[in-house]
Design goal:
single chain, alpha/beta, Rossmann fold, six-stranded parallel beta sheet, globular
Length: about 200
């Protein structure tokens, strides 16, 4: 499902920002044990296609479970190490991982912050763009929640919805009332990447 997508020059190299839970791995609520991280089928191959196209891939994820005291920072590190290792086994990699650990009602005081990085705010993407030299206006944000789409819209990127994780329910029950709409809706990350690669080569 495509809605009025601007043509993007092949000479430009946009980044692809990926939500984590529900987009890369199974949506299980809080990943409070390493065993709960289960990568979705086809994700590594999809990311590998972006790698081969020399398009930066950046994970941007809200992890308020850390703020709520549901798991320690060490587990979050271990989960991302596992994700990186599983991707590497299939010849894929991400170029950056940016995490918001904050929540205004956090149990842990150091994370009790009304921050600018918790999606749909744009802090994570702005930081990544500054540190990695990325052009947000020519980038894509892929996720399974409307907060991901709103993040994309707020920073001028193209919003892409996947129907994994919360995506199918959000598309049916939340999406119709929203001002922000996806530029593309994919069954999964593989389908989203197929569309993105078509968009950047037009």
């Amino acid at each position: 499902m495509v809605k009025d997508v601007p043509v993007i020059s092949a000479t430009l190299r946009p980044a692809v920002f990926l939500d984590r839970d529900g987009t890369i791995n199974e949506q299980m609520g809080y990943i409070n044990h390493i065993s709960r991280f289960q990568m979705l089928p086809g994700v590594a191959a999809a990311i590998r296609r972006l790698n081969e196209a020399r398009i930066p891939v950046v994970v941007v994820t809200n992890q308020s479970g850390l703020a709520r005291g549901y798991f320690p920072a060490e587990l979050l590190t271990a989960v991302h190490e596992k994700m990186t290792a599983l991707l590497a086994e299939q010849g894929a990699h991400v170029d950056g991982i940016y995490v918001c650990p904050h929540h205004p009602e956090a149990k842990r005081e150091e994370y009790r912050v009304n921050c600018d990085c918790r999606k749909p705010k744009t802090g994570l993407l702005l930081r990544a763009a500054a540190e990695m030299g990325l052009d947000l206006a020519r980038s894509f944000v892929v996720g399974d929640r409307w907060s991901d789409l709103k993040t994309a819209k707020a920073c001028g990127a193209l919003p892409v919805l996947v129907l994994t994780g919360y995506g199918r329910g959000d598309a049916q029950y939340i999406g119709p009332t929203q001002e922000v709409q996806p530029a593309f809706v994919g069954v999964d990350l593989a389908e989203a990447v197929q569309w993105i690669l078509g968009a950047v080569t037009k």
